[in-house]
Amino acid sequence: MKWKQIPLGPLQTNCYVLVKENKCLIVDPGGEEEKLLSYMKSEQLIPKGILLTHAHFDHIGAVDKVREYFNIPVYIHEKEADWLVDPKLNGSQLFPVGVLIQTKRADKLITKEETITIEEFSFQVFETPGHSPGSVSFYFATEGIVVSGDTLFNGSIGRTDLPGGNHEQLLNSIHEKLLTLSEKTLVLPGHGPITTIGTEMDVNPFLNGF
């Protein structure tokens, strides 16, 4: 599986396009749908779904435009199903981003940790709350990749001062769900550069001494 990191939207949120042959999954299309669509067209990709690690405004800004263009389903954890339609819950009402973000409801609700298969793609869903109540990470075991959203970053962790955030819960999520993966596992975070589980175990200052 190949992948492409495309920073999008007002906070340059990392959108990921995960590719097998000419089919793909899109993770967290945060905005600038023209930029994303242009890439998809140039690569002649056929998307099969949109995966959302959580529903903060900077991760969902282009959801409807991309979903409608390709007629594909959107997946999100049930705890944040209402966040898609409520600017107060998704944070766009609280931050001066210039527009209130509202999308249609998700097509598929994630209700538990499970393995999801979408045509050629198979991945595990880890519930990793703390940054937000319905935060999830997507683990592609065969490829050794975990898409961590705003749970774990290169040298940092997700903020927990937003509504629904919980610092202790976030650290538990990281240690119990992510740091149990192979140290070689590639971490694709919601912001900033990629990293590995091993690197974060060794040098992430927020994880030392927990």
TrEMBL record:
- List membrane-spanning regions: none
> GO MF annotations for this entry?
hydrolase activity; metal ion binding
Gene3D superfamilies named among the record's database cross-references: Ribonuclease Z/Hydroxyacylglutathione hydrolase-like (3.60.15.10)
The family database entries (InterPro entries) matched by this protein are listed as: MBL_Glyoxalase_II (IPR051453), Metallo-B-lactamas (IPR001279), RibonucZ/Hydroxyglut_hydro (IPR036866)
Keyword line:
Hydrolase, Metal-binding, Zinc
Cofactor or coenzyme needed: Zn(2+)
**Taking every annotated instance into account, which residue ranges of this chain make up the domain Metallo-beta-lactamase?**
12-191
Q: Which Pfam families does the record associate with it? A: Lactamase_B (PF00753)
Q: Could you tell me what this protein is called?
A: MBL fold metallo-hydrolase
State the taxonomy lineage.
Bacteria, Bacillati, Bacillota, Bacilli, Bacillales
